[in-house]
Amino acid sequence: MKYETEREQLSNYLAGMGLKHTKQRDVILTTFLDSADHVSAEQLYQKVRKKAPSIGYTTVYRTLKLLVDAGLAQERRFDDGLTRYETEHAHHDHLVCLECGKIIEFNSKLIEDTQAKIAIEYDFKVLHHRHELYGHCSDCHKKDDSA
Ligand SMILES: [Zn+2]
Ligand SMILES: [Zn+2]
Fold first, then answer.
1. 93 with 107: CB under 8 angstroms?
2. Nearest-5° angle of CA 36, CA 128, CA 3?
């Protein structure tokens, strides 16, 4: 079955909370896993609605919070104020296009290593960090240039 590990992880988490893994929660989970990363609650709701029109926005929103608590999703808040969700995957940072809203993931060993050195220098114990570069993506700045 598709997403068996994720389903089990959610079931275990819900059981621990005394909650049931309902059919609705299952639809929301699989739709989320099928979605591209950095989806907002509203965007996910629009996708869920196509499969199961009876599921309301509040249910989608609450279930997303449960997915975060269960360690299946990560919440991301960029400067545009919209909260987005992505699947839990290897550490990465983001380039955010202020024109079209595109979000690109990157991972730089050089940046990570430099950060580690800075932390040592200041005897600072880093728990997590976030790099967000804001600007115009390749498609959007090409438009700027031609204008
Ligand atoms: Zn763009
Ligand atoms: Zn990401």
1. yes
2. 35
Mean local confidence (pLDDT), 99-123? 95
Last residue of a domain, one of 87, 103, 126: 87
Query: Which H/E stretch holds residue 76?
Result: strand 73-77
Whether the predicted pLDDT of 142 surpasses 90: no
CA of 6 to the centre of ligand 2 (A): 18
Number of the ligand closest to the Cα of 141 = 1
Same domain (yes/no): 9, 79 = yes
Of 57, 64, 53, the C-alpha closest to 25 is 64
Crossing angle for the helix pair 4-16 and 57-69, to the nearest 10 degrees:
90
| 101 shares a domain with 78 | no
Ligand 2 midpoint to CA 84 (Å)? 9
Of 108, 112, 33, the C-alpha closest to 67 is 33
Among all ligands shown, which has an atom nearest to the Cα of 102?
A: 1
Total-model pTM: 0.84
What is the number of the ligand closest to the CA of 38? 2
Q: For residue 130, what are the domain limits? A: 93-146
